[in-house]
Structures are given as C-alpha cells and as structure tokens.
Amino acid sequence: MRDTLRWAYALNQWNIRMDVFVRHEDQRRALKTLSALGFGHIELAAGTGRWDNLGRPEVIEINHGSPEGFLAFLRSCSVNGVSSMFWDPGQPVEEEGWAFRSTRNRDDHAAIVESAKPFVDFLAAIGAEQLVARPVGSAWMQPPLGRDDIAAIGEVWNSVGKVAAAAGVGLALHYDCLSAVHTADELRRLLDATDPELVGLALDTAELTIGGIDPVAFYEERHERVTHVHLKDTRYADTGEEYRMPGAETTMLRGGAGRRIERWFFELGTEGGLVDVKAFVAALRRHGYPGWVVVESDHGGNPAELAMLNSWYLQQELSVART
Amino acid sequence: MTADQLAQRSETPERRIKWSYMDHWRSNGPAGPVDQWHSHRTMSSFLKQIKAVGFDAIDTFDFRLWQMYGDYGGPAKYQEMVQDHGLERIVNIFHAADYDLRNYAPHVPETHENILEDFRVTMGHWSSVELDNIIVMPATLYYDMEPVTEDKLKISAELWNKVGEITAGYGVKLTCHHEFFCGIQSEPDIEVFYSYTDPRYVSLFIDTAQHCIASVDPVALYRRHAHRVSGFHFKDTRNVAAGDDHRHRPDSEIMAPTTGKWFYEMGTPHGLVDFEAMMTAVRDNDYRGWISVEHDKANKDGGDYAESTAIARWYAVNVLEKIYR
Amino acid sequence: MTDIRWGYALNQWKPQFDDFVRREQHERALKTVSIAGFEGVELTAGTGRWEPLGNPQQLIANFGSLTGFREFLSGCGIAAVSSWFYDPQQRSMEHLTPPYSPLVAADVTGIVTRAEWFAGALAQLGGSVLVVRAAPSAGDVGPLDDAALRRLADCWTAVGRATLAHGVRTALHVDFLSSLRRPGALDRLLGLADPAAVGLAVDTAELTVAGLDPVEVIRRHRGRVWHVQYKDALAADTDEEYLQPHAEYSVRQRGGSREIPRWFAEPGAHGGLVDFAAVTRALLDIGYAGWVVFESDQSPHPATSALLGGYLLQRDLRPVTAAAVEAAAR
C-alpha cells in the first residue's frame, strides 16, 4: 500500500484450527494473496507446538533456519517484512511446560519477562517494530480487578517494555473485549499505571466497540499513547455482561452469546458495521499516527475473500493506493 | 501536457497489457456454494475482490444476459455496476452453446442456419455494450465430430466465416477457443481449420491450459498465428489428456477417468504451461490489449476462487509483468 | 414393522451445475446416505451431460443400463430409487423440448410422455412415486381460478394414469411459491383430479414456509398422501412474498425482503419450525404406507446434513414408529 499510513495484515485469520495453515505452501498462498492485495507487511501471532509453525521464534527457526531465512521466505512471496507479533503471556504453551501465568500475580512477573525475551529478540532480528501483548486474561476467569491489581499489571509490562526498548522493539498492550480490563476507565487506569516511554496501547477498533468503548473517541483522548492499531469491524456489541459468561471465548465469541450471533468480526465496509472506520482513519491521519495499522478479520470467514474485501475498502473507500 | 504530467508519464508508462477476469466464480453461501449472480450483494462482493487485486475489467458468459436483464436492467446497466466498482467494462463474452448434432453442429451444414440465427439474435442483445470478442468453442464435443475430416473442418470454417461477418457488423471479433474435448483440438486439425477461415472474420483465442491438455504447445501455436490472436485465457493445468480423455462419453471436462480437476490458476506448483515463454512471445509480437485470467472449477477438490484469483494476480505482477506490461 | 420406508434426496449435493458430476462423488454421497440409516434415494430430474443422475438417458450413458445403475446403488448399500422429482418447466436437452406448463392444454401430451419416461425407469429402479411440481410459481402465472385448477387436474390425471401403467404413482408436490397454498385451492385440485391416479406429496418445509401445518394437511387428505418429504423450515413467508414475479430467484434463492439466508435445512436443524415427531405420528395415524424422503434442499455441508438427519431418524423417529407398532400388536 502506498500511503502516509503504514498498512499491514494479520495472518491469524488463516490459522483457524490447530491442523490448518501448517504447510509452507498454504502459508505461501496466503502471503501471495496479501502481496497481490498491496500488503507488504504482516503481523504474526504467538502459538505453540510444531503445527503452529509461525507462532514461536524457535519453531520459526526450525522451519526456516534463521530470522534471515524467514525473511527470505516472506520475500519469495513479495512480502517485505513483519510489522508486529501478538503474544498472550497468559496462554499456556507446550514449550514452557504449559505454565499458567497471570500478569496480576507478582510471583509470575519474572517468568513473564523471561518468556518475552525470545519474542523481543526475534522481532528485533527481523526488523519488526511492535510486540503486541494481551495485558491480562479474560474477566470471567478471575475476580474483579482491584487497584493494586492494575498496579501489578503495570509493573510487569513496564519491565517487559524495558527489555523490548533495549532491543529497539516497542511494546503495545492490546485491549480485547473479553479482558478483565474492560471499561474505558479500567483501560485508562492501566495506561496510567504504565510508563509512556516503555508501553503503548494497541487499539483494536472492533474489540473496543464490542467492549462498549468508542474507538474514535478513545483514540482522540489518548492518541499519544496509541502505538499500534488493529483495524477491523463488528456488527455487535456486548449487551453489558456477556464477557463474563463462563467460557466466554467459546460461549460468547464462538457460541453466539445465546443470541445466535454466528460471527462477531467483519471486514471493513460490512453492512451494519458499528465501527466508523473512515472517522477513525481520519483521526489517525489528523494526529500523524506513526505506527502500523494492521488490518485484521480474525476468524470471520473465507480468509482470501476477507482480505480482498478489506483491500478493496482501503483502495476505494480510504483512497489508499495499492501499489 | 505539463511537465508534471510528463514526468509522471515517464514514471508509469502506459501499459500495453490490461487484465480481465473471466467469470466462473463461486463463494460459500449459507446453504452451500453460490455464484456471484446469486444476489446484488454477492455480485458486489465479487467485483470488489476482482478490483482489489488489480484486475482492470471482466469477461462473462453470454447466457448471463437473462440475469443482467432480470436483476440489473440489461448489459449496459450491469456494466454500470461493474464500473461503479472501479472496473472498466465487460471485455469479452463467451458464447456457451448447447452443441447437438440435431440442430447445432458446426460440421453439419443442415444446422448452420439455426446457428447463424442464434448469433444474429445474440449480437442484437449485446449491442448496448462495447465488446472486443465473442468467444466460441468452434466444434461439437470430440465424440460427436469424429472422425474429424478435412471436409468437416472446412464446413466448420465456412460457418464461422459467416458468423464472424455477423459479429463484425457489431464491431465484435468472433474468436475460437479450442477446448481439449472439442472436435478441433489437435495441432493438425487446428492448422487445417484456420487455413479455411477468413482472418478478417475468424480470430484465435489462446487458452493456455486447454492447448496444453491437448498436447499442443500454446506458445508455438501463438507464435505461428499471432497476427490473428485476439485474446487469451491464462490458466494452468497439471495434466495432459491421456488415452480417450478427450473423447470420453458422456463428458470429458468433469468426468474424465484420469483427472478430476483439469484447471489451476497460473503460478500453481507443477503447472505445465510455460507462462514466462508465453509472455515473452506476447512481448515479441508486440501484442497490445487484454489478457483474461480464467479459473474454471477452481473450488473443486478443496480449492477456492478468491485465493486462486489472488495467486494468479500475484503471479502476473511478480513474474509476467517483469517480462512485459 | 410399519409400512414406512426411509429415503434421502440427493439434490443437496448439487448446488451448482458443475457440482456432483463425477462417479466418485456419487459413490461417497450414496455411502453416506446408506450408513446414516436410509434405504432409498430420491433423484431430481435434470438435463445434459453434467446431470448424470438426471434422467434415464443420462443414467444409461453413465452406467450402461438402468440395471447397471441399480447395481451401482446396491454396491453402495442403497436398495432403491424411492422417487423422482420432475418439474415440467425444465427444458430437455435430450429431447430438444422447451419448458412445459401443466396449465397449457397443448403441453399435456409432452408432459405425459416425459412422465412415462421417468416412471418406466423408476419402476426398474425399485421406485414407486413420480413427484411432480403441481403448479408453476404464483408470481409467474397469477391466481389459479377454477378453470386453471381444472386444467391442472386434467393434466395430472392424464399423467397419473400413464405412470400407473408402469406401477408408479404420481404425487403432486406443493411448494411455497405455488398458489395451491391459498385456502381451498389444494382441496379443489385434489377433488377435481382422479383419486385413483393422483395423490399428494407432503413436503413438510414447503408447507410450513407457506403457512400451512403439515400435520393438518396430512389429516385432511389422509387417503391421498402418496409421498412425504421431510425437510425443515427455518422461516415462514409471512408477508406473501411468493406472489412477486420471479419469486424463485428473489424470494426462494435470495430470501426476499428479509434476506432469509436459508429457508430450508435438514430435519431437526437448530431453529427448525417443523415438529417431525408430530408429523410422523400423523402419518402413522392415517396408516401411511410409502416413502418418507429426508431432504435439506441445499446445505453448506451435505454429508453433515445427512448424518444429522440419520440421527433424528434413529433416535427420535424410529422410537415413534416402534411404539405405534407395539401399540397395534397389543
């Protein structure tokens, strides 16, 4: 994409089950699809195991030899590089003995900082800019956050941010609609508990909207803290308490929240979309937003089709030149 | 022209090749696969996807006429919708006829008047839009024409000369597309056929995969007939027809015993078409105009039209346009 | 044992003209139907070489003979073709004939000839019912007055008598686009047609979408129910959109003004409007003997639809029929 904003695309929409998107030729087809649509950079997502072979630095190295080998793989598909990588330290992984860690728990902090290091080093080695992290686990899995909890969460992210900054990598905390940090006020408190020099906000337009926060208004309010953007749309918002449903990942996001919602996340320009994408992008331009704008559709449907519809929207509705 | 415009022009020289997309689309609807003509919504989604990867225009089947009338108010109105999505126009139409020895067979003279009348009516229907080509399969199924004799080829050629005269009256070229399972598909038969056709009225449309499947080298064929080639379907195949594949009853295209899926997008692994040689030949002959990308039955065997389309465009941009654009 | 035999309609495997053409696809579908607990399959009339199961000529072209096709079926664990669905409005490439209308007297001979063609083959394939589209879409032909109903009755009586000569009964299929859903229309048509020659095919979903209760229809026409199709309905045409021109496309395929994504689904689908246990009890009450054919019409996952149908049959419906048999024995 040729534009004053920098556009990337998230690969997560292809990786919809543990046994798909494993073979290199499948990944090549996705990369070529994005390249043909004008996206020169991609966002990766952390995962676990040998079938999630774009999910951890050591697994990527087994597949491609080295960070340079991985870049060569991307470039063979005319994709230039990686903008960012999403990582959730609360997600147990095989490589770390399925350890269950929480950013609220100060006893886990040292291990979380340690487990961030390989990601930071890998991102630095491939020239990626942001480690995009889930700051805290799902609300339904834990008691409500007290003031000290937010302070504890802030501490660990300041520590991770320090490690990342030393390697020249940014750290952006990603709000999601199931997170224990749920309200606008909680999000503000989390930002206030972190060092603006070390920790930014990854603003996801659809996640904020589902969580009941207006992404345009929140960006206007805290634009100086926003260092990463996920751009996607939704047609639904949480009615208020759905994020607290037991097993909300399954019962709300996949199970339709009892409202028979088949799909929460949609491509830009979807009919009935709740995100004012044009206003949001105009606000990014107005503030001279310097970071990556990662277009994402999550697990919403046919990946190639969604990427094509998103690219069409960028080209035709946001006047972004494809090449 | 201002200096700025001149500078811009030297940066992006006018393209000699434009890319069109031939309609065989399917997407997954709530009750199974649907084509883009299913609804205005699916049509809009299709056109957006074609535009997003950088196609300039579309080709379609002429039997879509009825949906164009029913849903959009006719070809011109439908073309407005195409243009609203940032695409230029409809470039070519494919005339998918129901060949039948009883009433519609190019090598059977008794059926010619019926065929000619079909084209008179068809061209009238399409006169509201500017088309480059009307594409035909110039023969019946192979098994309905065999043995393929010089006489039959000559009779067929005479028919298409007359059809081409009709279409030329509408400013549209009649061009022949040689499916591997049609009566005129082998190299010698193609040569004989063109020796009897009038270059003013009958053009050749190179389908890279179909020729390859029929063991005809599409590049060599193109180089021999470049002066009368009026367009291309760029698609790939992984299989050459073997044994009786080309004359398999009742159908070769989907039912050939050796091969469940003949066609793949260009850029596919193990593809048999040498597209770089093809594009080099296109460049050497200074061809200017449209190349169409076609994906026929791309959704079979787990395939996906959207992805095939993106991969084909990637190949065009990253490989072919480096040779000629 | 009851006199009900269970079948499955193959139409859900062919959403587009270039689908379901190859032999191995047929084989997989037939084996799926068989293992799901069905003994027969219903075919849908089609034309041309990409409709290998569409008519007798294509069956012979593909399987050598009708016997060859029957052997193919039994090799997949399918005992019979239960029935064939025939819509006279479909043109025939094999016969070079245009669409026929049962409302046009001049078309009746052509319809009868074609129906006999299917019936003759059906008899050889172990089937017993030719299911015919009783009337064209309301939006295309206007309301059916008495004269129109009489023309329909004459046409189908002639067809029914002709197919009976092959041992095959003719059953009228009423779909939700037809004016036969209007009050009294179906009663009148069945009254005008020869009761020995013409029966009714009850399609649970079409009736439900049309706002009719299939249980009530079964009870009302108890002596005339000659064929049954079980499919579920996910929505009803409450706004009479079927009266629009070209409703086949605008309403049935595209869902009308409410953009219903899917009118039909396999029996027992989540959110389905049909109570299949109640319909089954109604059939047992009238002593129905014949085929009940499961259908989804179209499906995003045909094999899944067949297996879900099989589950409903085995877990919910067979106990209903077994209970009826037991009660009768007592």
Automatic annotation (TrEMBL), chain A:
Quick one: signal sequence residues?
A: none
Note the InterPro entries from the entry. IolE/XylAMocC-like (IPR050312), Xyl_isomerase-like_sf (IPR036237), Xyl_isomerase-like_TIM-brl (IPR013022)
Where does the Xylose isomerase-like TIM barrel domain start and stop, copy by copy? 34-304
Q: Which Gene3D superfamilies match?
A: Divalent-metal-dependent TIM barrel enzymes
- What's the short name of a Pfam family annotated to this entry? AP_endonuc_2
**Protein's UniProt name:** Xylose isomerase-like TIM barrel domain-containing protein
Source species of the chain: Microbispora siamensis
Taxonomic classification: Bacteria, Bacillati, Actinomycetota, Actinomycetes, Streptosporangiales
Automatic annotation (TrEMBL), chain B:
Which SUPFAM superfamilies does the UniProt record give?
Answer: Xylose isomerase-like
**What name has this protein been given in UniProt?**
Xylose isomerase-like TIM barrel domain-containing protein
Q: Where is the Xylose isomerase-like TIM barrel domain?
A: 48-307
List the InterPro entries: IolE/XylAMocC-like (IPR050312), Xyl_isomerase-like_sf (IPR036237), Xyl_isomerase-like_TIM-brl (IPR013022)
Kindly give the Gene3D superfamilies that the UniProt entry links to this protein: Divalent-metal-dependent TIM barrel enzymes
Q: Where is the signal peptide?
A: none
Highest taxon in the source lineage: Bacteria
Q: Which PANTHER family match?
A: HYDROXYPYRUVATE ISOMERASE (PTHR12110), INOSOSE DEHYDRATASE (PTHR12110:SF41)
From which organism does this entry originate? Microbispora siamensis
UniProtKB/TrEMBL annotation, chain C:
Q: Which organism is it from?
A: Microbispora siamensis
**Protein's recorded name:** Xylose isomerase-like TIM barrel domain-containing protein
PANTHER family noted in UniProt: HYDROXYPYRUVATE ISOMERASE, INOSOSE DEHYDRATASE
Lineage top rank: taxon: Bacteria
Q: Which residues form a coiled coil?
A: none
Q: What InterPro entries does the record tag this protein with?
A: IolE/XylAMocC-like, Xyl_isomerase-like_sf, Xyl_isomerase-like_TIM-brl
The Xylose isomerase-like TIM barrel domain covers 119-299
